[in-house]
Write a structure and sequence with these properties.
The structure holds 3 protein chains of 3 kinds. Chain A is mainly alpha-helical. Chain A has helices at residues 2-5, 10-16, 27-31, 36-64, 75-110, 119-141, 155-159, 164-191, 204-236, 249-283, 290-303, 319-347, 356-379, 381-387, 391-421, 427-453, 468-498, 540-546. In chain A, helix 10 runs antiparallel to helix 13 and helix 13 (356-379) packs parallel to helix 16 (427-453). The longest helix of chain A is centred in the first third of the chain and has 36 residues, at 75-110. The radius of gyration of chain A is 23 Å and the shape is globular. The N and C termini of chain A lie close together (9 Å). By secondary structure, chain B is of the alpha+beta class. A 5-stranded mixed beta sheet of chain B has the order 3-2-1-5-8, with helices on one face. In chain B, strands 4-10-9-6-7 form a 5-stranded mixed beta sheet. In chain B, strands 11-12 form a two-stranded antiparallel sheet. By secondary structure, chain C is mostly helical. Chain C has 6 helices and no strands. The radius of gyration of chain C is 20 Å and the shape is elongated. Chain C starts with a helix and ends in a 5-residue tail after the last helix. The relative contact order of chain C is 0.17. The chains are: A mainly alpha, B alpha+beta, C mainly alpha. Chains A and B meet through helix 5, helix 7, helix 10, helix 12 and helix 13 of A and helix 1, helix 2, helix 3, strand 7 and strand 9 of B.
Chain lengths: 548, 329, 209
């Protein structure tokens, strides 16, 4: 395999040929670019910075939790750390992660277009995102906020002594970046598909990003307005969330989760898209049940809007509302289950190899499976009344968001790295990274399921001594996980600077984006791409016989 | 290591019959989910091994049309089977939750006020405690809970139950302990700096011991008695008292009944209605009465409200003719 | 590339903006939708307070504003149509009329806010109501200011867009071959108008005999 990847004869040719990276070297050329590929890289750099900021907060928390009593910080600091961790990871890493980096880079290429439909709005969205990030950094410098990323009233409006309005403003501003990104993708997919590329020839990644974009466009404004009302209540002392003023604190939770539950699908649908691309490529097989997979994505996006109340089963919501939300939560689990089964079936009769992207993608499937199944506990009313808001919930959503989304993000980064940078990374280091992250992740978060079952609530600075063993185990796992996350940072940086030149299609993948050069030219394609008869047109039998 | 194995394996003690039912659901879910996790993982591992590149196995894919039909059939199976399981778990969990939504009528009422960062408990006879809750075994207990500041959550892992405690409204939680002992009580909704220290203990005692415990500290006046005093101090008796000439309803015998409202609807005269009436009297006007009652919002504490409610509730069995307060003597 | 092919390409590009604008409008509907949802919930829990408080909004000014905005919607639609059929001068006049009507709406709204402040209807600060319904009335006026404020902000943006269109049409930049921008502006203006159709009854006409 490696001999086919590294093609020394291609190197001098590539160096003279202009591509989007060599198109201009000045900082100015990057900051004023409307090239979707460059904007993707701007996003990638920004969210990587935020990822490590959020990770640093998590590291400090895990160190503190080694001891049931205060160890290195005060309760105030701890509360600010988990808030910073949540706000940064959710809005400044996970939500933009796959859509704004891989989505931006790949959507136009996968549909055979030169750019997104509205390139200037695309650039604007990055600036708005950066502005929101500035608010958050300003909040951190001003001491941080201690409300938790959920900003529940009345704590956030009347009782917290921290700079809540500044932090909320950051999230508010970032929302507009989400809306612009989503809007851009919707228009791009509708309008710019190459002639002959019909909806059911699109890669599932495009389907996933399209569905995600609809959620972004419809849910984010709700969050924006909710946060405006929250900030007004905090500043003017009047608002519809304050029980002492005739309002209703539960109303805030309804509005918040109306955005924040679909937001989970903003994070995980693109991850599913990445997994579908990677697994088919390394199994050399068309995805099992393409149409069902596409419909499942649409179903998840649609039903995802109707289950927000399952965050409020014990919050004083009416019994009948809870019954409906519980039922719908099970309904939304079905398309997720279909996806896992279909990925498994895709492996059947394949011709499987285990390069780093495939390891990450298989890791994604396993962890998403556990995250999804533990969601069944929390969708069940009687069970949720015991487990909600305990560490069981923490473990559950980390399995979905970190085990799921972050693993898939890494799978995608490794898969398209040769296309993005034109260089290869060290395969053995990358495989090691995938394994270390998988092991570290499970060691960190599996004990947290048990902690929750044993009754340890989340957001606890001090805890009963009986919980110490599992907390120490979790912290030990976190140290492995942290090392796992630093590994790709190191070897990928090295690869970007010194890696061997990549060929145009090192994995032999079938997507349109692989028909062009690595890195692609500014306008993506030197010659119009050939539109395949069907997506994922792999044939494992033929490839085996040809001795690929 | 025994400490470690204990930490790894032990569910908290199940101290109510409800908790045992939750545990049944838990183990069923864990069994099925564990089976599915292991099954799918093994399948993936098997496929990865058998169909790794270079093995001599049959890789011939069916032709397109046949393949499509076959995959539809397979997919129908793995849509239907999970859906059936989901329906079972939905129904099971919903049944538990539904059965325990309404407290039994004979439940012993205890009042809980949460504030940053403590639990204040008041028993019917006026006995108070902080961060401790004493209850008798084998009797249904109904907690009527409210918060003075932010949202808290009353969580007893041994009972497998929790309920948010909200400012400005009452929520209830009920349980029937079956095993005596001391069980941790935790706040399970983030409430600020002292969140993790907002903990306490629930003591489930034998009924005799509970009776002795209750009597031993009951030098304080009962909740109803305190409520009667508030009723006079705050001027409620001026209008609602039996001798009043003002046009306001007598409260005797009203509790638990349906009250007609201006505009033709009805409302049940219960704790929630009493609270609303005291804080926002104009919201629901009983038919035949003017909107004369002043709001007591901001003038009355949560514990005053609890006491007043307890007093008004105690009037449920009195007839309108008996002078109020007499039934206390 | 021939001139007609170029025009075709441009039209295709313009349609990108049209799809984009529709998506944006969907987003706007959710944005205002949340406010309407909040209003509904609050009105259900304070029906009398909302009825009484709404009696203190100035129904005359509200109605005048209705007339202004609905008329402006008509002129805007005609302006877009006019440009499409090549009546550039008429379109210019209609655009100017739209701008003036929109501006008048804002002027009336400002005057109304001024009156509200004079009557202590601003829920923060000294508030006119003290009765037992004050909490609900306060919430009504809070929502009144938030909702009309959000609407006014959209209107101001709309005025800016129409000003740009005015200059464009006057300079001959937008003609019958290139009128999509004006049509999109009209679409946006229709949203501003539609929101007001919903705001007017729930803020001015609750419980009015």
């Amino acid at each position: 395999m490696s001999s086919s990847i590294i093609d020394p004869s291609a190197a001098p040719v590539l160096e003279t040929e202009s591509n989007y990276l060599t198109h201009g070297y000045s900082l100015w050329s990057w900051l004023t670019t409307t090239d979707h590929k460059r904007i993707a890289l701007l996003y990638a750099v920004t969210i990587t910075a935020f990822f490590f900021m959020g990770g640093a907060a998590a590291t400090l928390m895990r160190i503190e939790l080694i001891s049931p009593t205060p160890l290195i910080m005060s309760a105030e600091t701890y509360n600010k750390l988990f808030t910073a961790h949540g706000v940064i990871m959710v809005w400044f890493f996970l939500i933009p992660s796959i859509p704004a980096t891989l989505g931006n880079f790949l959507i136009p290429m996968m549909i055979g277009a030169k750019d997104v439909a509205l390139p200037r709005i695309n650039l604007l969205s990055w600036y708005v995102f950066a502005l929101g990030g500035c608010f958050v950094i300003a909040t951190l410098i001003a001491g941080g906020i201690d409300t938790g990323w959920t900003f529940y009233t009345p704590y956030s409006t009347r009782f917290s002594q921290t700079t809540v309005v500044c932090g909320v403003a950051g999230v508010f501003v970032t929302g507009f970046s989400s809306i612009m990104t989503g809007l851009n993708f919707i228009v791009t997919v509708h309008r710019l598909r190459a002639p002959g590329l019909t909806w059911f020839k699109l890669p599932l990644f495009v389907w996933a990003i399209y569905a995600t974009s609809i959620i972004l466009v419809l849910a984010t404004p709700v969050l924006a307005m909710t946060l405006v009302l929250l900030a007004m209540q905090r500043v003017f002392g009047i608002g519809i969330f304050d029980a002492t003023l005739g309002g209703d604190p539960l109303l805030f939770q309804h509005m918040f989760w109306f955005y924040s539950h679909p937001a989970v699908y903003i994070m995980v649908l693109p991850a599913m898209g990445v997994a579908s691309e990677v697994i088919t490529c390394f199994a050399r097989k068309p995805v099992f049940g393409y149409r069902t997979m596409a419909y499942a994505i649409a179903a998840i996006a649609a039903f995802g809007f109707m289950v927000w109340g399952h965050h409020m089963f014990v919050a004083g919501q009416s019994l009948y509302a809870s019954l409906v939300f519980s039922f719908l939560s099970y309904v939304v689990a079905i398309p997720s289950a279909i996806k896992v089964f279909n990925w498994t079936a895709t492996l059947y009769k394949g011709s499987i190899t285990f390069e780093a992207p495939m390891l990450y993608a298989l890791g994604f499937v396993g962890l998403f499976l556990i995250g999804g199944l533990t969601g069944l506990y929390l969708a069940s009313l009687g069970m949720d009344a015991d487990l909600s808001r305990t560490y069981f919930v923490v473990a559950h959503f980390h399995y979905i968001m970190v085990g799921g989304s972050v693993m898939a993000y890494f799978a995608g980064i490794h898969f398209w790295w040769p296309k993005i940078t034109g260089r290869m990374y060290s395969e053995s280091w990358a495989r090691l990274g995938a394994i270390v992250i998988f092991v570290g992740f499970n060691l960190t978060f599996f004990p947290q399921f048990i902690l929750g079952i044993e009754g340890m609530p989340r957001r606890y600075f001090e805890y009963a001594p009986q919980f110490q063993f599992l907390n120490v185990l979790s912290s030990a796992g976190a140290s492995i996980l942290a090392a796992g996350y630093v590994l790709p940072l190191v070897y990928l940086t090295w690869s970007a600077l010194h890696g061997a030149r990549a060929t145009d299609n090192p994995w032999g993948a079938k997507g349109l984006e692989w028909q062009t050069r690595s890195p692609p030219p500014v306008e993506n394609f030197d010659v119009p791409p050939r539109i395949p008869q069907r997506p994922y047109d792999y044939d494992p039998d033929a490839e085996e016989k040809a001795g690929r | 290591m025994s400490h470690a194995t204990e930490a790894l394996l032990a569910l908290p003690v199940a101290a109510t019959s409800y908790a045992n039912r939750v545990d049944g659901l838990f183990w069923a879910l864990t069994g099925v989910c564990g089976f599915v996790t292991i099954g799918i993982t093994l399948t993936i591992a098997y496929f990865c091994f058998r169909y790794r590149k270079g093995t001599r196995v049959d890789r011939k894919l069916p032709d397109l049309a046949a393949g499509k039909k076959r995959s539809r059939e397979i997919e129908a199976v793995w849509i239907a089977v999970p859906f059936a399981f989901f329906l079972v778990f939905f129904g099971w969990g919903a049944r538990l939750y539904y059965d325990y939504d309404d407290p039994p009528r004979n439940a012993l009422e205890i009042f809980v006020t949460a504030k940053q960062w403590m639990w204040k408990v008041e028993h019917l006879n006026g006995r108070r405690e902080i961060n401790e809750l004493h209850v008798p075994v084998d009797r249904p207990i109904k907690l009527v809970m409210t918060s003075q500041d932010v949202i808290h959550d009353f969580y007893v892992p041994a009972f497998r139950e929790k309920r948010d405690v909200l400012p400005g409204r009452d929520t209830t939680l009920w349980f029937q302990p079956t095993v005596t002992g001391a069980y941790p009580l935790r706040c399970d909704e983030f409430c600020g700096t002292g969140h993790s220290m907002m903990i306490g203990t629930v003591y489930v005692m034998s009924q005799d011991a509970y009776g002795r415990w209750l009597a031993s500290g009951s030098t304080a006046p009962t909740l109803v008695r305190l409520g009667f005093e508030r009723f006079r101090e705050l001027g409620c008796s001026g209008c609602h008292g039996p001798g009043s000439t003002l046009h306001a309803p007598s409260l005797a015998g009203l509790y638990g009944r349906m009250v007609p409202l201006t505009g033709g609807s009805f409302v049940r005269f219960d704790d929630g209605y009493i609270r609303d009436k005291i804080l926002e009297p104009a919201k629901q006007i009983p038919a035949g009465y003017a909107n004369d009652m002043p709001s007591f919002k901001g003038r009355i504490s949560e514990s005053d409200l609890l006491e007043l409610t307890a007093y008004i509730r105690s009037l449920a069995d009195t007839s309108p003719d008996v002078p109020q307060g007499n039934h206390l003597r | 590339m021939s001139a007609s092919a170029e025009a075709a390409t441009r039209r295709a590009n313009d349609s990108d903006s049209e799809v984009g604008l529709w998506v944006f409008l969907a987003s706007e509907v959710m944005f205002f939708g949340l406010l309407f949802y909040g209003y509904t919930i609050m009105r259900l829990s304070h029906p009398q307070a909302f009825a009484q408080a709404s009696a203190h909004t100035d129904v005359l000014l509200g109605s005048i504003n209705c007339c202004l905005l609905f008329t402006s919607s008509l002129t805007m639609a005609l302006a877009a149509r006019g440009l499409r059929i090549g009546a550039c001068r008429a379109s210019l006049r209609l655009l100017a009329a739209t701008w003036v009507l929109g501006f008048l709406f804002l002027a009336v709204k400002c005057y109304e806010y001024h009156e509200d402040i004079d009557h202590h209807l601003v829920p923060w600060g000294r508030f006119a109501f003290h009765g037992s319904l004050a909490a609900g009335e306060r919430l009504f006026f809070f929502l009144y200011f938030v909702m009309t404020g959000a609407h006014a902000m959209h209107l101001i943006v709309g005025l800016g867009i129409i000003a740009v269109m005015l200059v464009g049409v006057a300079r001959g930049k937008y003609t019958e071959d290139n009128c999509e921008a004006v049509e999109l502006a009209a679409l946006y203006w229709a949203l501003v108008d539609t929101v007001w159709i919903f705001l007017y009854p729930i803020l001015y006409l609750v419980h009015r005999p």
